[in-house]
């Protein structure tokens, strides 16, 4: 079983460890740099853990002592990007189709669940493309 632990503080990560980890957990992804205390807590709650992954930017900052200690107990510390970054661009086609049907910008925004500013942006891009 794989578990994602996402927190901003050590206290939050300890709370997540208590709630989400058990003996069945084999993989964990951390959103913060793992301290010795955090790793000890993870290993005590999930003794069968095989892999701990962290973002690549944090992996560089983990001391080599911690990496070696994890190797000795058979746990791989892996640099892996699991948390979402910036959202992908939306497809403008549905926006343009609804505008062509006569819906207002607010109606399109509500129907597609996107910001009004995004609808205005696609409308402006479409109108400039048509004029050219």
Characteristic terms for this protein:
Rossmann fold; 4 strands; alpha/beta; elongated; 4-stranded parallel beta sheet; 132 residues
Instruction: Tell me the β content.
Output: 5-15%
Number of helices: 7
N-to-C span:
55 Å
| Average pLDDT rating | 89
Give the ordered list of helices and strands.
Answer: EHEHEHHEHHH
What form results from the Cα inertia axes?
elongated
Radius of gyration computed on alpha carbons:
23 Å
Structural commentary:
The chain has helices at residues 10-20, 36-45, 56-59, 64-72, 93-100, 105-112, 116-131; strands at residues 2-5, 27-30, 51-54, 76-79. The protein folds into two domains: 2-79, 3-Layer(aba) Sandwich (Rossmann fold), CATH 3.40.50; 93-131. 50% of the residues lie in helices and 12% in strands. The longest helix has 16 residues, at 116-131. The protein starts with a strand and ends with a helix. It is built from seven helices and four strands; from the N terminus they run E-H-E-H-E-H-H-E-H-H-H. Helix 1 runs parallel beside helix 2 (36-45), helix 5 (93-100) packs across helix 6 and helix 6 crosses helix 7. It has 132 residues and is α/β, with parallel strands linked by helices. The mean pLDDT is 89.
Topology:
Layout: E1 2-5, H1 10-20, E2 27-30, H2 36-45, E3 51-54, H3 56-59, H4 64-72, E4 76-79, H5 93-100, H6 105-112, H7 116-131
Parallel strand pairs: 1-2, 2-3, 3-4
Helix pairs in contact: 1-2, 5-6, 6-7
């Amino acid at each position: 079983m794989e578990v994602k632990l996402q927190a901003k503080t050590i206290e939050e990560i300890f709370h997540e460890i208590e709630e989400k980890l058990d003996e069945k957990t084999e993989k964990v992804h951390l959103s913060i740099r793992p301290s010795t205390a955090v790793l000890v807590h993870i290993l005590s709650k999930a003794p069968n853990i095989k892999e701990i992954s962290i973002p690549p930017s944090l992996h560089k900052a983990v001391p080599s002592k911690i990496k070696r200690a994890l190797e000795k107990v058979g746990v791989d510390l892996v640099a892996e990007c699991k948390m979402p970054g910036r959202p992908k661009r939306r497809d403008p086609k549905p926006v343009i189709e609804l505008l062509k049907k006569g819906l207002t910008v607010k109606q399109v925004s509500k129907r597609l669940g996107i910001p009004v500013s995004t609808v205005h942006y696609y409308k402006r891009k479409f109108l400039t493309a048509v004029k050219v």
